[in-house]
Write a structure and sequence with these properties.
Chain lengths: ~375, ~250
């Protein structure tokens, strides 16, 4: 037995060195997931507060109107496109969806009418068909702004008001979902795309056939591949965590040891799918369609690119049982919700079931040539 | 009589009802080079692959050193070395590492440099296999198949595609392997190779062995039957001229 494990060790070490000599493999293992992280992380980081892209067309010469624009641009709520000065420019940009609305301050806005001691006027919000929701919300925001100014201009009683208060409950940001989804994507890449590219190549070159003439057992070959993938995969995920913490303010509240153990389990289980596909296929052409049938549902239904809570409930229940879903959910529960391994029994259970299934299949269908 | 290492009896294989190997029997002795000749499709490779445990044996038996091939594939694999037709090795792996891996596949730990020196590849120890020439690859492939000191060494068309210098180098390498007491079994299409290298040959056609003896004896038998060549054979041929002019030394 010791000799058999020595075989596993040598294969693991030499193949690990080989990964680090292969620029292509390094790119897909380390850089590729980071590119996705930057793209999706960047898309999400602006989501924290509500904001509107608007143009302001000011036709009024009243000082109040200038003051009012100053008030609007103070906060982060309005992002004013300062290049726009005419309606035709504004319409064009609204038509392309780059602007949510245009705020018009007519010539009469902010003028003090004779016999009054305060400015009056009406701002107009212009919007296109597709921006109705944004325009409604924006109108309400403007209304509230004007209301707060009105109070200072004309004394009125405001018996009923509303205020906001932040709850102390920690909540998940959408980035937490995005990030663990991308972890899942990286695990899919390393665990499935790796083997289905490498194995047919090894078969084509007769490398596996040659190994078949030695007493090497399939389990030894699988085990060395498993350890290698777990080590490389964990490094790649660690880089993703580091970048997410440093650049996207990810807060990991869970235990890192439990997290690493859980991720290794996930990598090894998903790798089983890759080993089954790659080990079975005689060549690249044979494996591609089958791999797509298996990978695409997981890519879209397991929460890699958009969270599963956004799906219809029945679909959530179905996708619970896809192999990748418990990996992504479990990673999120541990990393960002601070749960322990014994609290995520249902995820671990589904993963264990898949582990048994995929490796039973992988051993059965493996071919050396 | 010399000790028999490989014993094949009534070996059979059929694909889709068609007999590819039709109940052949032969023995290979310890420390001899045994050649299997025959046109394409004669069943040479299938025969080798059955003995190498790569293909199931449909009928008959093969035993190596008294061990039955069909029932003890893993024991057999640990006492045979196999050189496939096209030696393929994984890329971006140093020669020393590949030797270590092959040894490890047999559960052995070896000094890779020693093996590489044996085939004049010591200087290339840190090179990747993809940078080797065809002849170097063949030499490396042979030494990789011998890391566990097997009792029988199989080669499938070892010199196909090599230049005359590399072929001669490989022949002397194969003779050295034989002289270490390892039995060598090879297939070939080249008659000159069989004549110069093999101690005994079996000629296969359509799944049967139609002749089995030393090359000299087979030629003598043919002449006895009254065979004459149309043209008087010169004492040298074009290959002799080529080797005389370009030398036996290996080209890089």
């Amino acid at each position: 037995m010791k000799r058999k494990l020595y075989t596993v060790k040598v294969f693991f070490i030499i193949n690990l060195r080989r990964v680090f000599r292969d620029r292509m493999a390094l790119f897909f293992t380390f850089l590729f997931p980071l590119i996705f992280l930057f793209v999706f992380g960047g898309l999400n980081s602006g989501n924290k507060s509500v904001s509107f892209n608007v143009a302001i067309i000011n036709e009024s010469k009243a000082p109040f109107s200038t003051f009012f624009i100053g008030e609007l641009t103070k906060g982060k709520t309005f992002k004013v496109d300062k290049d726009i000065t005419t309606f035709s420019q504004a319409d064009e940009k609204m038509g392309r969806g780059e602007l949510d609305a245009t705020i018009e301050l007519p010539a009469s806005f902010g003028q003090t009418l004779p016999g009054q001691d305060h400015p009056t006027g009406q701002a107009v919000v212009h919007y296109t068909q597709n921006n109705q929701n944004a325009a409604n919300t924006l109108t309400n925001v403007l209304q509230a702004k004007l209301q707060s100014i009105n109070v200072h201009l004309v004394h009125t009683d405001t018996p009923l008001t509303v205020t906001t208060k932040q709850s102390n409950q920690r909540s998940l940001s959408s980035f937490d979902y995005t990030f663990t989804g991308l972890l899942g994507f990286a695990i899919l890449g390393a665990g499935i795309f790796g083997p289905i590219n490498i194995f047919p190549e090894l078969k084509k070159m007769g490398i596996l056939r040659r190994l078949h003439t030695t007493p090497l057992r399939v389990w030894q070959y699988f085990l060395s591949t498993m350890i290698g993938s777990a080590v490389v995969g964990l490094m790649s995920l660690a880089v993703m965590f580091a970048v997410a913490i440093a650049m996207f303010h990810l807060k990991v509240v869970g235990n890192y040891v439990e997290l690493a153990a859980f991720l290794i389990f996930g990598i090894v289980m998903i790798l089983g799918i890759g080993l089954a596909l790659g080990g079975w296929a005689k060549n690249e052409r044979q494996v591609a369609p089958l791999a797509n049938i298996i990978v695409f549902p997981m890519m879209f239904l397991s929460g890699t690119f958009f969270p599963r809570y956004a799906m219809p409930e029945w679909l959530q229940h179905v996708s619970d049982f896809l192999p990748l879903s418990p990996v992504i959910d479990g990673a999120r529960l541990i990393a960002t919700e601070g749960q322990h391994l014994w609290q995520i029994g249902s995820q671990l259970g589904i993963m264990a079931a898949w582990l048994v299934i995929v490796y039973a299949v992988a051993f059965r269908v493996f071919r050396w040539e | 009589m010399a000790k028999i290492i490989l014993e094949v009896e009534n070996l059979q294989k059929s694909y889709d009802g068609k007999k590819v190997v039709n109940g052949i029997s032969f023995n290979v002795e310890k420390g001899e080079i045994f050649g299997i000749l025959g046109p394409n499709g004669a069943g040479k490779t299938t025969t080798l692959e059955m003995i190498e445990t790569l293909r199931e044996i449909d009928g008959g038996t093969a035993t190596i050193a008294g061990i039955d091939v069909a029932t003890n594939p893993y024991k057999i694999r640990s006492i045979i070395g196999v050189q496939p037709q096209t030696p393929g090795f994984q890329d971006k792996t140093k020669l020393t590492e590949l030797i270590q891996m092959f040894a490890a596949a047999y559960g052995e730990k070896v000094n890779p440099k020693k093996f590489l020196d044996e085939v004049n590849l010591g200087e290339k120890k840190d090179a990747y296999v993809e940078s080797l020439s065809g002849g170097q690859k063949q030499r490396f492939s042979i030494v990789a198949a011998l890391v566990h000191n097997p009792k029988v060494f199989f080669l499938d068309e070892p010199t196909t595609g090599l230049d005359p210098q590399a072929r001669r180098n490989l022949w002397s390498l194969i003779e050295e392997v034989r002289d270490r007491g390892i039995s060598v079994i090879l297939t070939t299409h080249y008659m000159d190779e069989a004549e110069m290298l093999c101690d005994r040959i079996a000629i296969m056609d359509q799944g049967n062995i139609i002749a089995l003896d030393t090359p000299k004896k087979l030629i003598k038998d043919l002449l006895k039957r009254g065979f004459t060549k149309k043209q008087q054979v010169e004492q040298a041929n074009l290959e002799d001229v080529f080797i005389d002019m370009t030398g036996k030394g290996l080209r890089k």
